[in-house]
Design brief:
InterPro entries: DNase_TatD-rel_CS (IPR018228), Metal_Hydrolase (IPR032466), TatD-like (IPR001130)
GO molecular function, one term: hydrolase activity, acting on ester bonds
CATH topology of the largest domain: TIM Barrel
Strand order of the largest sheet: 1-2-3-6-7-8-9-10
Strand content: 15-25%
Radius of gyration: 24 Å
CATH class of the largest domain: Alpha Beta
Pfam families: TatD_DNase
Function: Exhibits 3'-exonuclease activities and apurinic/apyrimidinic (AP) endonuclease (in vitro). Show preferential AP endonuclease activity on double-stranded DNA substrates and 3'- exonuclease activity on single-stranded DNA.
Family: Belongs to the metallo-dependent hydrolases superfamily. TatD-type hydrolase family.
């Protein structure tokens, strides 16, 4: 039997990111020729969401139920899976075994931050073994994750007697993948293949009879961080309707530069570009790493080329999370990259849009040392007393919508209104964990500040807009 269409063998369409426009997403899939899409669960709480979504679109969406090797704690921080996670879900998986397409997403994930100890790897193996046995019991295939664990995953699947296996977005070496091919395993290829040299080599070696397609949506798109790609026009329209007059769009990596510039060209009446290199970058496998001087060297000429056009140098700064700055040299590298960008800002009389996660005091100290003149510290997570050191220097602080669920109330109380501006940091830092944030949500920050400061939202809006124009004078061109 032959089907004239595509099959997306691995995605997460039950993600909250798709809630508002899932009908459009499914319609777009149909128009593109997708005849079936396998929607995977990752956590126990995903299971009812996946089932409900697939019942809504039974002609195209098929459920896969399983427990991922990476879970999240109550604070939304990633952690290693436990057998308890699986035990919470196993009865539901068995209850719906007759209607699901596969057991998944399951597997191993040996990133050091997820498996710092041998016991974590053993816990993942135990959960995977239980799900392989479940798949065998109900004669179901396995939809498998294997990040930073290609060889161990294939070895475990063989050891546990897995029969029908799909390894999704495999990031191991082609030679390791060939071990899976010998076992008859399939490999699904996501759209991010167009920006992955490693996976390009994998495709060349994989036999066609072992290749399937996937999206892993909302992740692994052809363009990094393209969370708004499918509905950017709607997002911009929502922004304007919410009364937002200007939005500063920041780069993080060198590859962001053409994307941000092109996006701001499309909507010049509301979007303004900021170019800079973030202290946290990603390696070829999408894993976070410390910035390097080479990252900045790739784009510094372009930053100077567009200095007249951009509104600020950013996003720049320091990020001293232990997993990013595992060695002291990493902190020195971040400081050097920041110093160069401060000098660039001073050279072209541009403000700085600054990140300072887990590094509030060091960031303010470095900015003072390097002679930074016009500074915005975004989503500051340091102590209020540390922020006051920035206030003394005339620095501004932007407040995101996540303030409604954070412990930074004291910061908002202590910051003078003349040092406060608004931000969203979208798609992150929204009012609800796990949901995509948008520029329109800036009004949530405004309303919260008004409540804390015992002011009207109108006054907060007026003052923060005046502050933003003082900090970013180029915005006047848009607001005229």
């Amino acid at each position: 039997m032959e089907f004239n269409g595509y099959i997306d063998c691995h995605n997460h369409l039950a993600d909250p990111m798709f809630t508002d426009d899932i009908h459009n997403v499914v319609d777009n899939a149909r128009e593109a020729g997708v005849v079936a899409a396998l929607v995977c669960a990752e956590t126990p709480s995903d299971i009812p969401k996946v089932l409900r979504l697939c019942e809504t679109f039974p002609d195209i969406l098929l459920p896969c139920l399983g427990i991922h090797p990476v879970q999240k704690n109550a604070d939304d921080i990633e952690r290693c899976v436990t057998l308890h996670d699986f035990e919470m879900a196993v009865s539901e998986i068995e209850k719906h075994a007759h209607k699901i397409c596969a057991i998944g997403e399951v597997g191993l994930d040996f990133q050091p931050r997820i498996t710092p100890g041998a016991e974590h790897k053993e816990a993942q193996r135990a959960v995977l073994k239980a799900q392989v046995e479940l798949a065998a019991k109900y004669d179901l295939p396995l939809n498998v994750h294997s990040r930073s664990a290609g060889r161990p995953t294939i070895a475990a699947l063989k050891e546990f007697g897995a029969k029908n296996v799909l390894l999704h977005a495999f990031d191991g070496r082609p030679s390791i993948a060939m071990e899976g091919v010998k076992e008859g395993y399939f490999f699904s290829i996501p759209p991010s293949i167009v920006r992955s040299e490693q996976k390009g080599k994998l495709i060349k070696q994989l036999p066609m009879e072992h290749i399937l397609l996937e999206t892993d949506s909302p992740a692994l798109s052809p363009v990094k961080d393209s969370m708004f790609e499918h509905d950017i026009q709607t997002v911009v329209e929502n922004t304007k309707r919410a009364g937002v007059a200007a939005v500063l769009v920041c780069t993080v990596t060198p590859s962001d530069f053409p994307l941000v510039l092109r996006l701001c060209d499309q909507y010049p009446d509301v979007l303004v570009p900021c170019l800079g290199i973030h202290p946290v970058q990603k390696d070829s496998n999408g894993e976070q790493r410390c910035v390097s001087q080479e990252d900045l060297d790739k784009v510094i000429t372009e930053m100077e080329q567009y200095a007249d056009r951009i509104c600020a140098i950013g996003e720049v700064g320091l990020d001293f999370q232990p997993r990013i700055t595992a060695e002291s040299i990493h902190k020195d590298i971040q400081r050097n990259v920041l110093k160069t960008q401060v000098e660039l800002a001073n050279k072209y009389d541009l403000p700085l849009n600054v990140h300072s996660r887990s590094a509030g005091k060091p960031t303010i100290a470095a900015l003072k040392e390097f002679g930074a003149k016009s500074v915005l510290l975004h989503a500051f997570d340091g102590r209020p007393s540390t922020a006051m050191e920035g206030v003394k220097e005339g620095y501004f602080f932007s407040i995101p919508p996540s303030i409604v669920r954070s412990d930074q109330l004291k910061l908002v109380k202590q910051l003078p209104m003349e040092n406060i501006v608004l931000e969203t940091d979208c798609p992150g830092l929204g009012p609800v964990k796990g949901e995509r944030n948008e520029p329109a949500n800036v009004q949530i920050s405004c309303d919260y500040i008004a409540k804390v400061k015992n002011m009207t939202p109108q006054d907060v809006k007026r003052i923060t807009t005046q502050n933003a124009l003082k900090l970013f004078p180029k915005l006047m061109k848009i607001l005229k």
